[in-house]
Specification:
The chain has 572 residues and is mainly α. The chain has four domains: 114 residues, no CATH class; 117 residues, no CATH class; 109 residues; 132 residues, no CATH class. The chain has 15 helices and no strands. It holds the Pfam family EzrA. It is found in: Cell membrane. Keywords: Cell cycle, Cell division, Cell membrane, Coiled coil, Membrane, Septation, Transmembrane, Transmembrane helix.
């Protein structure tokens, strides 16, 4: 019994101790969560939300911005006045439950309180973000309004201080400024009386009108300057310049200069009327046209003044160039006449030279017709300049072609000398070939070889005959010279082939004699080769006949003898 009692007591003690330990741990854990929850509540209350609300409130928001602000403000009021108070009550109740060892209920209440705390923190973050967005948006709007007001004030000051710069458009600009001022005043009134929607519409219109007016006022002064100063000054200068040039006996191809100047004056007046109505697109278009017309007339005057200087400086030069070309052409014709007695002129040189003379005579005639008009100042200087420039070009081309013809004529004499040297060279080569063939003491020569030799010789004789004519044709001589050169080159190749074939055939037959008595095929080949060699003069065929037969008896003999021959050929 004592033992059982002790066991029961020990078990009870363990249970009590375990309960105490668990209770202590749970109570401590709940207490830590309570303290953390309290810290979060205090941190939420410490946020400067009230200050941020007051800051936005001072901006005097209107319209949708004001409605949005009221929503955020109401949410903060609900949280700060109601939700946080409810949370504080919950925290107090949880502390009591924890102290009374009602740990599970305290834990459940803590879960609920923490969830509520998280929700409030999220809401406060949204409120602060919304307030920040409102503040930044309103600041941007305020800057835009202030910018428009600054622009308006600047435009007003500019118009007052620089009224002359706006010319006939100034009254219309003043009307626009008055209208914009009325719009800004109306905006302030509507905003103050609580009609934010209409106030925003009026403000938007005021801003749009302000920047539109700025655009116009930026564009107007340069246009006014053109219409009141630049163009009138230019027209006056052009009128005076035109009169002075006429007094100096200038003549213009354009007969409507006065009419153009009168038209420009009318355009200036039309542009001023458009400016008065602030139709700036029309003013800019007309001013561009005026500027183009003015520059066109300036270009005419500048062209004629420059042309006058050019004509004055080049009148004598053109005549000198014409005389120079005439002299050169006379010399060219004399040279061609002299040359044509000795050479055939194949490229119409005389006809071309006579054509140059016709061109030169035409230029001289036109020059002499024009000169009195220039002296009496009855001609447009730019037209005279054009004639001079064209004359220079024609004379330059003529001189270039004259020089080319002279160069070609000199080449005829040079070509004749070269052709004569070639004839001597061809004849020398033919004699050498003939002596070389005779030296070989061949039984005879093939008919085709002799025929080609005589063709080459006849061609050289024909070339020599052409060169000995009283009037030679260098085109024909060059052609014959080319043919002769080709013929002799081919003849030399044929001669070498003929002599080599004959010499090799003899050597092959001599070498083959060692097989003659004991090889009927070789004996027959030697006899046939001798027939081809001594009777028919077909040395190449004789070589092929004996060479192929010898190779059958002694393979490689043909190539060995041929190689030995060509390596010692110069000694032969």
């Amino acid at each position: 019994m004592n033992t059982q009692l002790i066991v029961v007591i020990v078990i009870l003690l363990v249970i009590v101790i375990a309960f105490y330990v668990v209770s202590t741990i749970m109570r401590k854990k709940n207490q830590e969560r309570l303290e953390e929850l309290e810290d979060r509540r205090e941190a939420l209350l410490d946020l400067p939300v009230e200050d941020e609300i007051d800051e936005v409130k001072k901006m005097h928001l209107v319209g949708q911005s004001q409605n949005t602000f009221r929503e955020w403000n109401q949410k903060w009021t609900d949280i700060s006045k109601s939700s946080i108070g409810d949370l504080e009550t919950q925290i107090y109740e949880i502390e009591n439950e924890n102290d009374l060892f009602r740990f599970m209920k305290a834990k459940h209440s803590l879960d609920t309180a923490e969830a509520q705390m998280g929700y409030m923190e999220g809401e406060v973050d949204s409120i602060r973000e919304g307030l920040r967005s409102l503040r930044e948006s309103e600041e941007r709007n305020s800057l835009a309004v202030q910018e428009a007001l600054d622009v308006y004030e600047d435009l007003k000051t500019r118009l007052n201080e620089e009224k002359a710069s706006y010319g006939a458009a100034a009254p219309e600009m003043e009307k626009h400024l008055v209208n914009i001022e009325i719009e800004f005043t109306q905006f302030v009134t509507l905003n103050t009386t609580g009609d934010p929607v209409e106030a925003r519409k009026v403000l938007n219109q005021a801003e749009e009108d302000t920047f539109e007016l700025k655009n116009k006022m930026d564009r107007i002064p340069p246009l006014v300057l053109e219409l009141t100063d630049t163009f009138p000054s230019q027209v006056e200068e052009l009128e005076k310049g035109h009169q002075q040039l006429l007094e100096q006996k200038y003549i213009f191809a354009e007969k409507d200069i006065e009419a153009r100047l009168f038209h420009i004056k009318g355009q200036i007046e039309d542009s001023k009327k458009s400016l008065e109505q602030t139709d700036l697109d029309m003013v800019e278009e007309v001013n561009r046209n005026i500027d183009e017309e003015v520059n066109f007339i300036y270009d005419i005057f500048e062209r004629e003044i420059d042309s006058h200087k050019y004509v004055k400086a080049n009148t004598a030069q053109v005549m000198n160039y014409i005389e120079h070309a005439k002299k050169n052409n006379r010399q060219l014709l004399i040279e061609l006449d002299h040359t044509s007695q000795s050479y055939t002129l194949n490229h119409n040189e005389l006809g071309r030279a006579r054509g140059y003379q016709t061109e030169i005579d035409t230029l001289e005639r036109n020059y002499k017709l024009m000169l009195p008009k220039l002296e009496e100042k009855q001609m447009v200087y730019s037209q005279a300049r054009e004639f001079y420039e064209d004359s220079y070009k024609v004379l330059d081309d003529i001189e270039s072609e004259q020089l080319q013809i002279l160069s070609d004529v000199k080449e005829l004499r040079k070509g004749e000398k070269e052709a004569q040297k070639k004839v001597d060279d061809f004849e020398f080569k033919l004699r050498n070939i003939k002596r070389y063939v005779e030296k070989q003491r061949l039984p005879g020569l093939p008919a085709d070889y002799l025929e080609f030799f005589f063709v080459a010789s006849d061609r050289v004789e024909e070339l020599a005959g052409e060169l000995n004519k009283i009037r030679i044709n260098m085109d024909e001589i060059e052609k014959l010279s080319k043919f002769s050169s080709d013929d002799i080159e081919i003849l030399q190749e044929k001669t070498d082939e003929l002599i080599d074939s004959a010499a090799l055939a003899e050597q092959m037959m001599q070498y083959a004699n060692r097989y003659r008595h004991n090889n009927p095929m070789i004996a027959q080949a030697i006899d046939h080769s001798l027939q081809l060699f001594t009777k028919e003069y077909r040395y190449k065929d004789a070589l092929d006949e004996i060479g192929s037969s010898l190779n059958k008896v002694e393979p490689g003999a043909f190539e060995r003898i041929e190689k030995f021959y060509f390596s010692h050929r110069e000694l032969a």
